[in-house]
Amino acid sequence: MKRIRTDDEIIVLAGKNKGKRGFVDRVKDDMVFVKDINIVKKTVRPNPMTGETGGITDKQMPLHVSNVALFDVTTNKADRVGFKVVDGKKVRVFKTSGRVVGAK
Predict the structure, then answer these.
(1) Strand partners of residue 68
(2) Would strands 89-94 and 63-64 be described as parallel, antiparallel, or unpaired?
(3) At 83, which CATH number?
């Protein structure tokens, strides 16, 4: 079970986007793609076979899982994630408060 999943609200802990909050778009191995965060300019070569024009485009780059933390909306702070068995199911919980992640 992964600590950070798709559609989780996270906050960036390190790098040029430190302090920004966003929602996880997708997770691949130990990298996360966050919506509207870590966007870079990439040059694209034209490809006449596919009709692709060249130029400068925006591309979303991944962040390492160690550089992001789950955002707890009740405390408005970043928090670590732990696991606990509740009613026979393994769930994610916030380390400081013990609340289940995603519970209202």
Answers:
(1) 12
(2) unpaired
(3) 2.30.30.30
- Could you report the per-residue pLDDT of 29-87, keeping only the tens digit for each? 999 999 999 999 999 999 999 998 999 999 999 999 999 999 999 999 999 999 999 99
Q: Tell me if 3 is assigned to some domain.
A: no
As a whole number of angstroms, the distance between CA 60 and CA 34 comes to 8
Torsion, Cα 6 2 61 16, to 10 degrees, reads 100
Helix ranges (H only) for 18-96 are none
Q: Give the global pTM.
A: 0.82
Number of domains in the chain: 1
Instruction: Print the domain residue range for 68.
Output: 9-46+56-94
